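=== Given protein ===
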Amino acid sequence: MSASDNIVIPIQDDSHDFSTPFSPLPSQNPSPLSTDAIIQHDDNAQEIKAEGSWLWEHISYLIYLAVFGIFGVITRYGLQKLFGPDGLGVTGNILYLDLPSNMVGSFLMGWFGVVFKAQISCMSDHLAVGLSTGYLGSLTTFSGWNQKMLELCAEGEWASAALGYFVGLLLVAYCIILGIETAEDIKWILRKLSTSSQSGQFRSRPNSKVGSFKIHMVVTLVLLVLLVLFYCLSGSLEKNKFNKGGSEAQLLLACMVAPLGVWMRWFLAKKLNGRGLGKNGVLKWLPFGTLIANVSAASIMATFAVLKKAVNTQNFDTIASGIQFGLMGCLSTVSTFIAEFHNMKENNQRWRANAYAMVTILASFIMGTLIYSVPFWINSYN
């Protein structure tokens, strides 16, 4: 037997290293494997492994985003019920129904999307994306905020709508600042209490990183199982409750379509944020991905709002409300929007931050007025 018959070729992986024995296929006249063949095999293996790793990583992100996005929708629904007219009765008029969830989400974005983001990423990049883009992005919604202001304008309450935009922006902007400040305080306390080395820095140990291949695979598969079980259960419940209508049927449908909204927003952010326009990257500072997600979601939200008044049936109301609350609520986001707004201000780019906020609000308001308010006035909807 020649030395080449037991050659071991190392194959690199993003998560860990492992080796795979290679031996030639049986032949009547076996001959030593040439160096060129070994190199070619190694290149092919590396390419296949890279493609598999890329596909697995993206599937994992989608699973994390879907699960955390559904939890975000459920939390937003709970906050609506808690602070709404049927609960504590806090929200109403300029204090729109989604204001509490937008404030809570912006506050938590200061924690998990700014201060502790690096520490969470050390544990798992997927967890960091799931928390910020998936959960907090779905907990907050720009389209619901914009739609409430459009309804006030359609009813002639222009001053209330203008105040609603101003108060809404002011509150979420302060909430993320408060979140960052409290998180920094907690981080300082953890540093003081930490008995580890590394000059008292609060860091995760490399060997505990969830990104390791085996642990990451187990967590992802568990989330996948939970997602499948959720769709089986919610699909069965929706079938029984759909014809009865009501908020429960709307919530179930909203949760079922929520992942699509999260995925679309994540895709837009990855492809368009920080790229600018054209080959020269004009206006690179403007996060076009988030901007397009918010404006398009607000426009589609307005479309379904006017269609509900035109069709005016229970089944269509259930479908439209579910899509509005789940798909459009998750496609749009306030937590990411306000984080980008805050980041511009912190980098001494106040005019850019204000321009970004004005472009988002004005574009959504103009599109919503054309889609919702004009048909409302023409058809004299109640």
